[in-house]
Design brief:
CATH topology of the largest domain: Pseudouridine synthase
CATH class of the largest domain: Alpha Beta
Shape: globular
Number of helices: 4
Helix content: 10-25%
Radius of gyration: 18 Å
CATH superfamily of the largest domain: Pseudouridine synthase
Order of helices and strands: EEHEHEEEEEHEEH
Largest sheet: 10 strands, mixed
Number of domains: 2
């Protein structure tokens, strides 16, 4: 499999990740991952960071597509990771959710922590409620792009970077991501031809180690574009 590289210099690689492939091995993952493909092409990545993630700066879930940053050396890795920690990075995602979101714009502010009922999942907690101590702040902004019968296409701007944050927050809003088997509701509709959750990291704005500020874009994959076109016809 050939990975599409959006941008490359001496410090970073910007990868256009396809849906359906894990970023780096965790737990039971034995299949080929993004980092396996990158190390094959860029063997020096093994000198960056710690295995198994090496220079991968942030994660995208297996079925999430779009922009993934990889550092090519330790200096760049620390520089970029620091920006993620200080919220110095702007990220935007395109997602299709189930149902008609009432407001054209909104902000979801909660705490997020691991679900006690299912260790694979995250759960929303509100400040002051039982078991909310030690849970982490999570903030997600969204705006509506287009409305369809039974679905809403939205742009999401996560202000924090919690695991499964967007999926968990939209499910909490009662508008889970279309095709999301983990955070979706029992019996929720799925657009014809959608075989995984509809979540795409389409934009990132970041400062590079050389001081340059850069913006990167990734277009929706053809399979997701087709879902939108089919919904427009209905």
């Amino acid at each position: 499999m050939d990975l599409k590289i959006i941008y490359e210099n001496n410090d970073i690689l910007v990868v256009d990740k396809p849906a359906g492939i894990v970023v780096f091995p965790e737990g039971q993952t034995k299949e080929g991952t993004i980092i396996d493909l990158l190390v094959e092409k860029y063997p020096d990545l093994k000198n960056t960071g710690q295995p198994p993630r090496y220079g991968i700066v942030h994660r995208l879930d297996k079925d999430t597509s779009g922009i993934l940053l990889t550092a090519k050396n330790n200096e760049a890795l620390f520089f970029l990771q620091k920006q993620f920690k200080t919220k110095g990075i702007e990220k935007k995602y395109i997602t299709l959710v189930v149902g008609n979101i009432e407001n054209d714009t909104g902000i979801i502010e909660t705490l997020i922590g691991r679900s006690p009922k299912d260790r694979r999942k995250q759960k929303v907690y509100l400040i002051g409620e039982p078991n909310s101590e030690g849970k982490r702040e999570a903030i997600t902004e969204y705006k509506v792009i287009e409305r369809f019968p039974g679905y809403t296409l939205i742009e999401v701007n996560p202000k924090t970077g919690r695991k499964h944050q967007i999926r968990c927050h939209l499910s909490y809003l009662q508008h889970p991501i279309a095709g999301d088997k983990m955070y979706g509701f029992k019996g929720q509709p799925t657009p014809k031809g959608l075989n995984h959750h509809f979540l795409h990291a389409n934009y990132i704005k970041i400062k590079l180690p050389n001081g340059q500020e850069k913006e990167f874009h990734s277009n929706l994959a053809e399979e997701l574009n087709k879902i939108i076109k089919d919904l427009r016809k209905q």
